[in-house]
Amino acid sequence: MTTNEQKKRIYLSSPHMSAEGYEKAFIEEAFATNWIAPLGPNVDSFERELAERVGVKAAVALSSGTAAIHLALKAVGVGQGDIVFCQDLTFSATANPIRYQGAIPVFIDSDHTWNMCPKTLKKAFEKYEAMGQKPKAVIVVHLYGLSADLDAIMEICREYDVPLIEDAAESLGSLYKGKQTGTFGDLGVFSFNGNKIITTSGGGMLVSNDEEKIKKARYWATQAREPVRYYEHKDLGFNYRMSNICAGIGRGQLRVLDERIAKKKYIFDYYKEHLSDLEGLEMMPIQDYDDPNCWLSCIILSTDRVKPTDIIEALEAENIESRPIWKPMHLQPYYQNCDFITLQEQGSVSEDIFNRGLCLPSDTKMTDEDLAKVTMVIRGLWG
């Protein structure tokens, strides 16, 4: 066994089941009643409970957040050859469903919020309007739980009469001006992947106040099967429904969401208190309008003395997990030929954040001793 393997592993963000065993109780109920299927009481209840929690009229539980984005795009009519304006600084799962629909992504740079820049979004609309084109949808992301500047973005979308889809995969529990992110746009998306603030092991949820769109998404997610005795399909469907077992985990996790948010915020505040005095190190930006869930605590460096890779390697040597900021979509080889809109004459805001940023371990099972170890390793690089 190596020295590194003997050290306690500190994770970036791993699954955290409730101490009360809520998840296990719902799973055992599913086994006892033989609801081992991609439908059932847990699925129905999870949809209702999540909708009530975030304050929307309807929700559909799906196999992933990616599936939810896909069906959101389909629900607003995105199809072959359509243009979709998409936040550049994000994980690829935000953009990939655009291609599933045969549509064309145009990537929009970030601003000081780390999220989509409204001025750049406006520039994109003006550019494509001059070419006689208009996007079929806009996808905004609430990166790492930080709310995007929704008022400004929604105003632009209303001006051009284009639907807004919120990728709130990372921001369940984040509030924009007191209201849950993911509930402002035409449709919102949440993810319950294993590293998210609550998990179903894998899964997602599509939410909206447009009950017809959610009804249609549920139909597509169930192989677009018609409500007749025999198997009939008038539309292309998908196998996207969430398992009743996974939904049981989600129901249990939802009961400890407030605890998880509180711990994530505690971790962020701990890092802020113990690292902010280091020259050239800043915590991720929180705006006045924002009450983030702090899913991941991120930093950005403005010093030549220490690079993000130095911190990653130093933490790795102590068996501590960290990772770079998402690599922007316009820098991804698959998307290199797509249009990218920025206000910068050279480079971009998203690329700068990627080059200088870093995600610190933000696991809700971390102890104060773990946090002290992380900060000690980082401070050691400053000498």
Structure notes:
The chain has helices at 3-6, 22-32, 41-54, 65-75, 92-100, 118-130, 150-160, 211-221, 244-254, 257-275, 308-316, 349-356, 368-380; strands at residues 58-62, 83-87, 104-108, 137-141, 164-167, 175-176, 179-180, 187-191, 204-208, 281-283, 290-291, 297-301, 323-324, 340-341, 357-360. It is built from 13 helices and 15 strands. It is globular. The chain has 383 residues and is an alpha/beta fold. It folds into two domains: 3-14 and 257-380, Aspartate Aminotransferase, domain 1, CATH 3.90.1150.10; 22-254, 3-Layer(aba) Sandwich (Aspartate Aminotransferase, domain 2), CATH 3.40.640. The longest helix has 19 residues, at 257-275.
CATH architecture heading of the largest domain: 3-Layer(aba) Sandwich
Question: Strand fraction band?
Answer: 5-15%
- Structural shape: globular
| Average pLDDT figure | 97
CATH topology of the largest domain: Aspartate Aminotransferase, domain 2
Q: Structural class of the helices, strands and pairings?
A: alpha/beta
Radius of gyration: 21 Å
Number of strands: 15
For the sheet with most strands, the description reads: 8 strands, mixed
Low-pLDDT ranges: none
CATH superfamily of the largest domain: Type I PLP-dependent aspartate aminotransferase-like (Major domain)
Number of domain units: 2
CATH level 1 name of the largest domain: Alpha Beta
Distance between the termini: 30 Å
Helix content: 25-40%
**Number of helices in the DSSP assignment:** 13
